[in-house]
Amino acid sequence: QVQLQESGPGLVKPSQTLSLTCIVSGGSITTSDYYWTWIRQPPGKGLEWIGYISYRGDVYYSSSLKSRSSISRDTSKNQFTLQLSSVTPEDTAVYYCARGTPATAGYDYWGQGTQVTVSS
Q1: For position 102, what pLDDT does the model report?
Q2: CA–CA gap between residue 40 and residue 20 (Å, rounded)
Q3: What's the CA gap between 101 and 109, in Å, rounded?
Q4: CA 99, CA 26: separation in Å to the nearest integer?
Q5: What residues does 37 pair with on adjacent strands?
Q6: H or E element in which residue 99 lies
Q7: What's the CA gap between 70 and 75, in Å, rounded?
Q8: Which of 3, 24, 46, 52 has the smallest number of Cβ neighbours within 10 A?
């Protein structure tokens, strides 16, 4: 059973960099062909895809967030990280990490989500 757990600060000040880590257990982030994804849901809105890092380490970002996003991984710790720079209150959301699977073009495992609020 694969489990994902997000961790990071719940409150970030405007203009700072948001940093979240997803710790994965029960499966390796280097196992083909999975892709390890960040998704967020602002209050009252739908899910927004942020980007992913593949099992090979390739990264892809949403065009709207690409300039501020960075996804990396630590294979020795079996975890991957999202950094989002220059945050504004519009970045307030519940942030999820998830495992994407090409077999279904969907996500078969999700973290429980972590609330991040951007406020001074």
Answers
A1: 85
A2: 12
A3: 9
A4: 12
A5: 52, 98
A6: strand 93-101
A7: 16
A8: 46
Block residue for tokens 């519940």: 94
For residue 50, with 0-12 CB atoms within 10 Å meaning exposed, 13-18 middle and 19 or more buried, which class applies? Answer: buried
If we measure between CA atoms, which residue out of 91, 34, 90, 24 comes closest to residue 57? 34
Cβ atoms of 116 and 8 within 8 Å: the answer is: yes
Q: How far apart are CA 98 and CA 90, in angstroms?
A: 22
Rounded Cα–Cα distance for residues 71 and 57 (Å)? 10
Pairing of strands 114-118, 11-12: parallel
Alpha helices by DSSP H, the chain: none
Residue among 74, 79, 119 nearest 97 (CA): 79
Q: What is the mean pLDDT of each run of 10 residues along the chain (120 residues)?
A: 95 97 97 95 97 96 96 98 98 98 90 97
